[in-house]
Amino acid sequence: MISINTGQYRWHEFPDLSALQEAALGAILDSAALAIQERGRFNLVLAGGETPRGVYNRLKSVPTDWSAWHIYFGDERCMPPTEFEWNFRMAGEAWLDHVAIPPNQIYAIPGGIRADKAADVYAQTLRGVGMFDLTLLGIGEDGHTASLFPGNDWGIAPDSPDTLAVFNSPKRPPQRVSLSAARLNRSRQIIFLVAGASKHKAVAKWRAGENIPARAIMCETGVDVLTESALLLPKHSE
Ligand SMILES: O=C1O[C@H](COP(=O)(O)O)[C@@H](O)[C@H](O)[C@H]1O
């Protein structure tokens, strides 16, 4: 049986994408400063897709100790690394290629091989990695988060594998790798970045408590959802 968390969501509204991205930047830097001060390293999981691009762009020019940052990915699209939808490529172009994070502390999910093989490789990468300090996530039009799609196994059970291979993604490309909900939830802090009119229906379902993949995500400290104000208003047609 799939049991969905009942933990706390904190919804934060912003007038536009730029304000949302600025707030996300502040939250990431606060989280990094705390983690580095307390544990000497910052384990950050990145969201893919388009919404976080502006946040990553802003991270290019902040003062921080990049040598303490360790970058993981919440999901990847199995396609050649040259494809522009590759999450690793987007994060690289927007941010990672421009800062001094040691390359061996950027843990990409292999993108150009079969999803099951890539999932196995990344499960090895995650072996021995403890709690993530901060996990960034987005949400798709259908309520998917990372590459956990409606109708698929989201890996909610505590003994779920850390990584899941996806062969039937309704969004291009069909093959993907996702961290399981159980692994994503082993985070000290989780922040969703939600923007764009196409997300309106998914947000409404989420807030109404419907069983969409985003609801499989929760950690002990609760979940912060940064969203454009417009997405919280009822649509005229509803
Ligand atoms: O397929 C994916 O979609 C979600 C949302 O992407 P966005 O472009 O609407 O921001 C994303 O969070 C996930 O990482 C990605 O691979």
UniProtKB/TrEMBL annotation:
It is an enzyme of class 3 (hydrolase). It holds the Pfam family Glucosamine_iso. Residues 16-220 form the Glucosamine/galactosamine-6-phosphate isomerase domain. Gene3D superfamilies: 3.40.50.1360. SUPFAM superfamilies: NagB/RpiA/CoA transferase-like. The keyword Cell cycle does not apply. It catalyses: 6-phospho-D-glucono-1,5-lactone + H2O = 6-phospho-D-gluconate + H(+). Its EC number is 3.1.1.31. Pathway: Carbohydrate degradation; pentose phosphate pathway; D-ribulose 5-phosphate from D-glucose 6-phosphate (oxidative stage): step 2/3. GO terms for molecular function: 6-phosphogluconolactonase activity. Keywords: Hydrolase. It comes from the Bacteria. GO terms for biological process: carbohydrate metabolic process; pentose-phosphate shunt. Hydrolysis of 6-phosphogluconolactone to 6-phosphogluconate. Belongs to the glucosamine/galactosamine-6-phosphate isomerase family. 6-phosphogluconolactonase subfamily. This is 6-phosphogluconolactonase.
